[in-house]
Design goal:
With about 110 residues, the protein is mainly α. It contains three helices and no strands. The radius of gyration is 16 Å and the shape is globular.
Length: about 110
Amino acid sequence: MCYCEKCHKHRGDKEVYPRGIPPTKILKHKLYSLANDWHVAFHGTLVENVMPILDAGMLLCPEDVILGGDALSQRPGHFDEHRKPSSDFDTLQIFVSPSIKYVESRAYASPIQ
């Protein structure tokens, strides 16, 4: 499914959907699917990182080493040791968001066709 801004608006998608137990918002109807019992979190990345993530079978943190020996790095605009909310904030972690709009930021991903 395409999540570009045009397709997102065309479908009438909301920015955040209430899912998970407990749901992030009060639901108007009962959820029946197990998939809806999980909180949804999006993780933005570059297309060239998809296969290493799948090969590893999990998301990796910056500075982790992927198959082939390359270490992952933080993208420009991402939190790093010189740009972070507080001095004790650990920038070497996995960042996820309940909104696909946030993870499409160039600090996490780049558009592709």
